[in-house]
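Consider a protein example.
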Amino acid sequence: AIQSHLATLHNLQLSVGEIVELTHSVRQQLQPQAEQLKAAVQSGTVVHGDETGWRENGQNGYAWAFVTDGPQAVRYFEFDRSRSHRVARRILGANFLGWLVTDFYAAYNLIPGRHQRCWVHLLRDLHALKETQVANPEVGEWTTSVRQLYADAHTWLVEHSAPSQVERCSEYNDLFTRVCRLGEQYALAYTHPCCTLAKRVLRHQDELFQFVLASGVPADNNLAERSIRPLVIMRKISGGSRSAEGTKTRLTLASL
């Protein structure tokens, strides 16, 4: 159905106004399919979440993305003026039971359930801290130790291609203990350069190694970032949309 509508747009010689009207009509006809995508996200086992700025009639808002991987992969986009956790809770639904994979944005902290935080973001911040504190050996030692946890987790998964749940729990508990120890090292040293990241790893201590505990959970949020990238490019070119109807059509068709 989507291909048929797109072929119609491609073949007809239409004015800009007619094209806009037709795209709105396509979105309205395919809205049930978009709702099915949203339902698929809400029932997903592993869901990646991200958000990016989106301007509507010159006013700032956000395009939220929730995506899944696998044979029945879903990309669902929705606009909201707010960047609050309430938006994520509304889109995911009250009964979401899967793993939510995100960066460290605080709004996701208030989403109930299981979380995996993105190690790519953490490793990037560890590297930046190390680069700005080259002359401080304590910083270099601490950041290297945190990075080593991530390396050890991946090495363990490579060496255990089909681990039992007991083995997974044992490795998870070991990594959890080690990351807590590293966080506690500087979390209360408020003037130390490592304090901010130490507090972060303590705050998310149980959300850093879910990818070890559960099969199919990734260690990063790259899937959501790659999925939202076309919208970012579209926003840079067009500047956003001019109306609520235009925003809904743009993001619904992107989802479909």
